[in-house]
């Protein structure tokens, strides 16, 4: 659950993410039943929460959503993350048919894309691979700035190494790089390249109002087949609110 609250010290609105302890530990008194599956789910959620806190604590960038405080009182049934409140919500949402509904103000396309790319470059320079970059995980403020959010499925890598290897499919299939599917169970791929692919899909979706490879209901096999065989159509009309100079992004 996410609540809106006023920080009386700064007189600013904050988003408070409340995570029930029972969801993080099957042994917690408030945990629901479910046996072994419940234990696996709890461990997964705990890893995601720890990862998100670690990343947001170390990464401070003007276009990455900020984490201000973690309230972890064992006597309380919830862990609270006090986060930056971004007032206009997701940059866009994608429906099951792959159509994109946007909230982007007219004439802000290139500015927004530069901000997303700047945040992504910063994350990679600080050893973070996002793994689920998509319009739903980019928040838009009323002044037209954007903030990359939702790091629960992200990965950390050693910046002293040249590789940022990741494996396994996470996040949203329609934004997954195809090498993740071909390498499933057999090896690792460059996580930074995975993020760049997702950025490319995001740019296409914002420019044309649809996904480049079908819908979000596709199976992994159908999605991979579409990526391999369906040419990307850059001749579609741009969305009405795309900036005129956004055509410079097209091949």
TrEMBL record:
InterPro entries: Kinase-like_dom_sf, Prot_kinase_dom, Ser/Thr_kinase_AS. GO terms for biological process: intracellular signal transduction. GO terms for molecular function: ATP binding; protein serine/threonine kinase activity. One of its GO terms (cellular component) is cytoplasm. Keywords: ATP-binding, Nucleotide-binding. It comes from the Eukaryota. Residues 1-251 form the Protein kinase domain. PROSITE patterns: PROTEIN_KINASE_DOM, PROTEIN_KINASE_ST. This is Protein kinase domain-containing protein.
């Amino acid at each position: 659950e996410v609540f809106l609250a006023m920080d009386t010290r700064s007189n600013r609105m904050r988003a408070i993410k409340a995570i029930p302890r029972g969801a993080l530990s099957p042994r917690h008194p408030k945990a629901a039943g479910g046996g072994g599956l419940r234990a696996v789910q709890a461990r997964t959620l705990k890893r995601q929460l720890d990862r998100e806190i670690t990343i947001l604590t170390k990464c401070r960038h003007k276009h990455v959503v900020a984490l201000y405080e973690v309230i972890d009182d064992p006597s309380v049934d919830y862990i609270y993350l006090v986060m930056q409140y971004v007032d206009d919500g997701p940059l866009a949402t994608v429906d099951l048919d792959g159509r994109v509904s946007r909230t982007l103000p007219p004439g802000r396309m290139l500015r927004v894309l530069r901000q997303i790319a700047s945040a992504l470059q910063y994350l990679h320079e600080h050893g973070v691979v996002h793994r689920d970059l998509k319009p739903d995980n980019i928040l838009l403020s009323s002044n037209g700035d954007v903030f990359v959010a939702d790091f629960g499925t992200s990965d950390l890598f050693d910046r002293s190494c040249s590789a940022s290897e990741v494996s396994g499919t996470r996040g949203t299939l329609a934004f997954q790089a195809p090498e993740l599917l071909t390498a499933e169970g057999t090896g690792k791929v460059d996580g930074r390249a995975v993020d760049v692919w997702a950025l490319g899909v995001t740019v296409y979706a914002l420019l044309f109002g649809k996904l480049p490879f079908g819908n979000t209901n596709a199976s992994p096999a159908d999605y991979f087949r579409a990526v391999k065989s369906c040419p990307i159509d850059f001749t579609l009309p741009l969305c009405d609110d795309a900036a005129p100079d956004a055509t410079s992004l097209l091949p």
